[in-house]
Task: structure prediction
Amino acid sequence: MKDNLTFNQLDLLKEIGTIGAACAATALADLLGEKVEISVPQVSVVPLENLCTVMGGMERTFFVLDMEINGDILGRIFLLFSPDDAKFLGGTLLGKSKEEIDLKDELFQSSLKESANILCGSYVSSLAELTNMTILTGIPSLALDMVGAILDFIFIQIAQYSEQALYIKTDFKVKGLNLEGLFLFFPSTDSLQKIFEVLKLKE
Result:
């Protein structure tokens, strides 16, 4: 992702992020069978070296779902949840309270992986519908790690795609509780230009 994006290009990326967040809220409501309220998403383009700051520091821990994107668009998408939010999400699906959830339980991790997969898929589907492109997702992986380790992985794996991330922070409210959804989307430079061209936005 180039660091000299125009104002209109940045505005378009923010709009894509906002549409994706709305689709994720709908998917989350269907998944949980509960009403989901959504805040106005915070969407920005963040250089890789600044991700630590926006993610809350090296020591913060997240459950992170990592999914490769291919087809007409190449890149990678990450969805991050705090352990407490992950417990609530997975516990709701399993019919358990947060206190009953063991983060290492395979059934819990499976339910969290499936729910995160659905949420990421809703973002990808909204982009595919908006651009009329074929966008495929790879097999997702799920891990619990600190920001420092997550960033190490990103710096190694993402360099082939981009030096910046489309950062999308969305607050969901479910059953009176607030959940923070953090998406990082890394489209390749060529893919980004495809998106701009399809949507008739030039530099």
Q: What stands out?
A: The longest helix spans residues 7-32. The chain has six helices and eight strands. The helical segments are 7-32, 51-54, 83-94, 106-131, 147-158, 189-198.
